[in-house]
Amino acid sequence: MNGHSKFDIKGCVLSILTYLILLTSSISAVAQESDTTFVEEDFSMYDEVELADGGKRFATSKVLGQSPNKLISLGYDFQGRHDMTLDDLGSAPMSTLQVNSVQGIRIVANFPIISKTNVLVNIGANYGESLYQIDNADDHPLSQSLQQRGLRTTGLSATVFKPFNETNFLFTQVTADLNGDYFLPDFQPLSFTRYSLSAIYGWKRHDRLLYGFGFTRSYRVGEPNYLPVFMYNYTFPSRKWGIESVFPARGHVRRTIDARTLAFFGYELEGQTYRMSSLEGVGGVLDPELRRSELRIRLVFERSIKDFIWLSVQAGVRYNWNYNLDDGDFFRGFFGDQLYIMENDLANALYFNFSINLVSP
Prior knowledge:
By secondary structure, the protein is mainly β. It has helices at residues 11-34, 141-149, and strands spanning 70-79, 82-86, 95-116, 119-134, 151-163, 168-180, 194-206, 209-218, 225-235, 241-247, 250-258, 261-275, 288-306, 309-327, 345-346, 349-359. It has a 14-stranded antiparallel barrel with strand order 1-3-4-5-6-7-8-9-10-11-12-13-14-16.
């Protein structure tokens, strides 16, 4: 076990995030001044229009021009060649290996079970996998496990959008994910389920602006943490440009090319903690948890190919945020001084993601 600082690799990431936010603001300002062409059709117009509670009006969950919600998504994710540096574990010394690829399918389903003007409730399910191809994987127990077993996540979620009037609303989300090196259909014990919670109180000022503040208990940084959240969705008067964001998880500048074609530039922070049952007892580790988190800086292109069937293609850079090994699932926070069992590093990698989506009408 070594005592390297957990912040050594993160300074440049914070600079990138700052640059993206500034770039978002400047692009949006230019777009507001220079583009006055209206789009022909807006998928957000399909929000509920009937009144409830004796004619009382309620805020809707979207702004004009916002990208349509995905009901079913079937995708494929690929990361290109990069180096992986693994710390010593037991009798295995530190190793630098070449990862030829990381790939796997991603399936997401999200369906409304209650859809009224005064409350929206969605239930979702997701599955994702990361299958590794590593040269000389047998040189280290972790790379051997990744090569032979890969990583998988299977989850359920529930979201509730509760408007109180035409302006104020509360958005909540609860997720339960089972992450690890298990095989299907042999899941790991449900006692290793990891739970996340988000709550945002917000304001919808008009049809083009919605924002809110809240908190989240999330694994996006690769381990349990508590973070403030800022939601900001805005469409400029031209309806050609907009911002869709939930900071710090993700933020994108949106460009509406035409009625059925959208483009985005931005980032997303993805992460989970994975139960590594294959490493139990190796190097004295009793409760191995891989803290995996990555920042994806990307361009996204989405287009309707037939009615409500949309194609989505994204490409960009995957930047490693966390890929360390802990003994146990516990809260460290940003200022905890507990040492990792292993402190690993992944080189940056190019990635792309392709998906076919059924979107909401």
